[in-house]
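[[Sequence with tokens]]
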Amino acid sequence: MAEVQGAANLKPRFSRILLKLSGEALAPPAAAGLDLDALGQIAVEVKEVADLGLQLAIVIGAGNYIRGTDYEARGMDRSAADHMGMLATVINSLALQNALEQVGITTRVMSAIEMQDVCEPYIRRRAVRHLEKGRVVIFAAGTGNPYFTTDTAASLRAMEIGAEVILKASHTVDGVYDRDPVREPNAKRFERLTYIEVLQKNLKVMDSTAISMCMDNRLPIIVFNLRKPGNIRKAVMGEPIGTWVESAT
């Protein structure tokens, strides 16, 4: 009986997940652009999860190249800045696709902005079919609309494909804190939070639109540290890691 229970514990807790990566996770230390070593390490981590047999989709930010809000603050039109950011997510997505395929993972990039020479246009049914065939799907170009973050895009795509959880991978912290733990070492880390608590406390998990969408659809979020090897696998296995954001009941 113990052996049977042990085998059961090796099964992933989730069968279809969406992994949200920040663009900064792909950047070289203290620089902009792409770190090929970081890409390779992420690819190895993703392969470890994909080999468990679950279905995996990914959304990547563009902070290693551009943030629309930063350029807006300097006088650029927000729509133009956001569209530049969307194009940067396509660059990141193609780079990650290459890294994944180098470790043997069949991958598709689907863009909310059509550019058929380099990736597929986003079509929900086609995306689900790719997942059912065991392909990792990377959603690029956000929602295709300015004023919406890649966090919101992650929430939207997760609900469209029927994901059971969003894994929010942080490149700096190991969960959600009441204050910035980098600046304040005594900051408190939360193990579990409700969506309402995140909104009321203005905690830096995802933007308020993304959190509200997850709350309305009871889609849990796990915030964890990407830098520690094996953490993506621990998250999909349901091990106590990082901070869980979910409904109160």
